[in-house]
Amino acid sequence: MRRRRKRLVMALAGTVATVALIALVISLAGSTVKREDLTLGEVSRGTIEASVNSSGTVVPAFEEIITSPISSRIVEVYCKAGDEVDAATPLLRLDLQSAETEMRKLSDEMRMKQVELDRQDASGSTSVSNIEMQIKVKEMEVDRLKAELSNERYLDSLGSGTGDRVREVELAYHTGRLALDQLRQQLEGERRTVNADRRMKELEISIFGNNIREMQRTLDDARIRAPRSATLTYINDQVGQKVAEGERLAIISDLSHFRIKAQAPDSYADRIRVGASAVIKSGKTKLNGAVMSVEPQSQNGMVAFDVRIDSTDMARLRSGLKADVYVMHDIMEDVVRIPNGTYYQGPGEYELFVLSADGENLSRHTMRLGDSNFEYVEVISGLQPGQQVVISDMSDYKNRNKIKIK
Q1: What stretch of H or E contains 255?
Q2: Quick one: which of 70, 89, 110, 274 could link to 208 by a disulfide (CB 3.0–4.6 Å)?
Q3: pLDDT digits (tens, 9 = 90+) for 175-204
Q4: What's the rounded Cα separation, in Å, for the pair 226 and 251?
Q5: Which residues are within 8 A (CB) of 278 and not within 5 positions of it... i.e. 6 or more apart?
Q6: Are 104 and 91 in contact (CB under 8 A)?
Q7: Is residue 261 within 8 Å of residue 306, measured between CB atoms?
Q8: What pLDDT, on a 0 to 100 scale, did the predictor assign at position 204?
Q9: Beta-carbon contacts of residue 98 (< 8 Å; ≥ 6 apart)
Q10: Nearest to residue 78, comparing CAs of 224, 181, 270, 248?
């Protein structure tokens, strides 16, 4: 039993010594870092054009969605996604038989309305002519009664006539004049009626004409063509598939010019304004631009905005690439600053490693950082100009306060 206990104690002691040695090696290895593995930034004093940091996606500057103008089905497809198309290039063909039948029906109805108008004009012209003829006859009759009344009055003045005869002719004369006035009023009313009926028929014909023109435009649109020269980025190539009115058929995009669809926390919404200058960084590409529009409402705590790219050199950009967007909103002069890096996540308190004066050690410092742009971060407190700060990833040393440099 003594020998057994002795062997057990010796094995336990060896295990403890091994673990202690491994821990010492790990501790010594974790407390040192190679100088070439570090990225240092010097604390300086200068100007910062403060910006809001946001992320975005490269999208075509121009993109048009082509939808189906009618409910139909796809008969033929002439292009495929990725093709470069010119203006008026046929993209696909829809089944237009029912629409063309409807248009022929409208055309026939319009011609029928035109025939009805012609017949109505003839009928109205005849009615007006009859009344005009009656007026002419009545005028002649009134003139005859007027002459007869004048003769009877002359005879009565000579004693050859009678007063009753004069009154009889005079009554006939006034009755004839009233009848003539009535015919003239009837003629005027008939003309107004004929004109009103004609305007109504003309309006009906005009409505049919508008419907036919609208149907013709629909038929023209249903022959799906490219509205301009661009790249076909999407097309519904399922021949025989039914499509509803307004359903997406194709998308054409201008892939020679791009813009950025970006998002930022809505807490920065008051700093993002239309016209504000911006810097776009995608990989090693750096471009200048400006905010062209801002969405009025935020979604899920983010405000969306579009950035126009001012540069004409967009050869390295591709639709769908991720980009960092820095929207300028303020200029701060004579402030303490350090180079920007992946460590910065917004204003607040940070713990970064600072190089000692002899350049042999790194020590953890607590500091407060403020606004930033794509180059520098404002130092509110904790650092002095001339110091060297590690701005590369030091997550492997998050539990160390001091690190020795090899």
Answers
A1: strand 248-265
A2: 110
A3: 988 998 998 898 898 889 888 888 888 898
A4: 9
A5: 51, 288, 289, 290, 291, 307, 325, 326, 327, 328
A6: no
A7: yes
A8: 87
A9: 72
A10: 224
Residue 266 · residue 303 · CB < 8 Å: yes
Reference 123, options 180, 184, 185, 198; nearest CA is: 198
> What is the spatial distance between Cα 96 and Cα 123, in angstroms, rounded to a whole number?
41
Structure token pair of residue 323: 């980009």
Residue 150, token pair as written in the block:
């004048």
**pLDDT at position 110:** 85
Containing H/E element for 19?
A: helix 2-30
Token digits for 346? 């917004």
Question: For 127, how many CA atoms within 13 A lie in the half-sphere containing its CB?
Answer: 16
CA 359 to chain centroid: 56
Per-residue CA distances from 181 to 130, 138, 139, 271 (Å): 16, 10, 10, 82
Structure confidence by residue, pLDDT tens digits, 331-357? 888 899 999 888 888 889 999 999 988
SS3 state of residue 181: helix
Lookup: tokens for 144: 């005859």
Instruction: Give the separation between CA 215 and CA 222, rounded to whole angstroms.
Output: 10
Q: Is 28's pLDDT higher than 60?
A: no
How many whole angstroms separate alpha carbon 385 and alpha carbon 55? Answer: 31
**Chain center to CA of 301:** 22
| Residue 90 contacts residue 76 (beta carbons within 8 Å) | no
pLDDT of residue 29: 47
Which residue type does 348 have? G
Q: Given this model, what pLDDT does residue 20 score?
A: 66
Distance of CA 318 to the CA centre of its chain: 21
Residue type, 157: S
Angle at 251 between CA 285 and CA 227, to 5 degrees: 105
